[in-house]
Amino acid sequence: MNAPRHAKFCPLGQEPRASLNKAVHPEVDAALKSVKKCRRNLAAMLEIIQDERAILERLYYKGKNQHGAALFWKRVTETRRFSQRLDAVAFLDLLDTFMLSFFSANAIPDKMKGSWLFYPSTQYCTSVQRRLEAGLALIEQVHFLMLPSLLITGKARQKCAS
Questions:
Q1: How far is CA 106 from the centre of its chain?
Q2: In terms of domain of life, where is this protein from (predicted)?
Q3: 5, part of any domain
Q4: What is the 3-state secondary structure (H, E, C) of the chain?
Q5: How far apart are the C-alpha atoms of 7 and 36, rounded to whole Å?
Q6: Between 51 and 149, where is the model more confident?
């Protein structure tokens, strides 16, 4: 098994909300609302990517013996490898744990409503930000690689439909 490609997270250090300057509270509220909206949109996009990956996996296993030396097949293999790395980033889990860091330890992720009680340390926020930036760079690479293979999967969909 391959070693993980990302650095370990720094430990979560939570401080009580009361220790934060009250002037910053509305900004944190707005940021949490923005992260929640972003998470919903990201979940929808990742579902689409998962469907595309399932099609790519099917094509890969159907044609790996037949097209092994072809140039486009190398691109399909590379796209498959990058999409597996994209799954390893686990964006939704990362955002869920980040959101949970603002609430108590026994908070349920789906029911994070109401006022936040804590705020995470700056080091923790920085490590989450770095992980998300690395994931974004990976998405950009996958997008660049997938353009030709999406054309292949689009043709495969048309073939399967007829």
A1: 24
A2: Eukaryota
A3: no
A4: CCCCCCCCCCCCCEEEHHHCCHHHHHHHHHHHHHHHHHHHHHHHHHHHHHHHHHHHHHHHHHHCCCCCCCHHHHHHHHHHHHHHHHHHHCHHHHHHHHHHCCCCCCCCHHHCCCCCCEEECHHHHHHHHHHHHHHHHHHHHHHHHHHHHHHHHHHHHHHHHC
A5: 25
A6: 51
The total number of structural domains in the chain stands at 1
On whether residue 11 sits in a domain, the answer given is no
pTM, to two decimals: 0.73
Digit-coded pLDDT (tens) for 78-128: 888 888 888 888 889 999 889 888 887 666 655 667 788 889 998 999 999
**142 lies in some domain:** yes
- Per-residue tokens: 141: 């690479």
144 occurs within a structural domain: yes
Residue 41: give the domain boundaries. 16-161
Give 99-104's long-range contacts (Cβ < 8 A, gap of 24+): 99/32, 99/35, 99/36, 99/39, 101/12, 101/14, 102/28, 102/32
Query: What is the mean predicted confidence (pLDDT) over 27-54?
Result: 89
